[in-house]
Write a structure and sequence with these properties.
18% helix; 187 residues; globular; 2 helices
Length: 187
């Protein structure tokens, strides 16, 4: 009987400690997230002298709708992302729909704004980089164009893909989760 009482006490103590963590985890999962994917064939390395180096770049930004309904095939216009779309966390989706692509010239110290048909607005700023990586600042608004979803600095290998997850979105008859794939290279 004493063992059962000790087990119950331990369980109650653990539950009181873990319950807030589980609740916070659910909120964190629902929030926008970002994932960096290295350029194909690139090696990992620390960013050195992030404020030096690159002064100009060009970024391709793709807005994609991921849906849990579909045939599981990657469309031709997203083939270049296949390696990442078939891996976590995107492998749970059954279809991908390109909502729009934009090209943005980035210059060190200046923000370049890109507007999407979805209502989202994205600003990219080149902060610098070294011989292998670019350092950028990203601001992404909600569909209303006012509330910020993401405001962050990040480093990524030259020509690597950076993924930013958004919230639920509906385009025509397709409902799913929107995300952006950002690919920047120095000029």
């Amino acid at each position: 009987m004493k063992t059962r009482s000790i087990k119950s006490s331990i369980c109650a103590a653990l539950c009181s400690v873990l319950a807030p963590a589980v609740a916070f985890g659910a909120v964190a999962i629902a929030a926008p997230a970002a994932h960096a994917a290295p350029a194909k064939g690139a090696q990992d390395g620390a960013t050195k002298g992030a404020t030096k180096g690159a002064t100009k770049g060009v970024c391709k930004v793709h807005a994609v709708l991921a849906s849990k309904e579909g045939d599981g095939k990657i469309p031709k216009n997203l083939e270049f992302m296949k390696e990442w779309l078939t891996d976590e966390p995107y492998d749970r989706y059954k279809s991908f729909h390109l909502l729009g692509s934009k090209k943005a010239e980035v210059v060190r110290g200046k923000a370049t704004q890109t507007d999407f048909k979805t209502g989202h607005k994205m600003k990219l700023s080149l902060l610098g980089g070294d011989e292998k990586k670019l350092r950028l600042h990203l601001d992404l608004t909600h569909r209303d164009g006012k509330k910020n979803l993401v405001a962050m600095d990040y480093s990524i290998e030259d020509n690597g893909l950076f993924f930013v997850q958004g919230g639920e979105h509906k385009s025509g008859e397709v409902t799913g989760r929107i995300f952006w794939a950002i690919q920047c290279a120095r000029r």
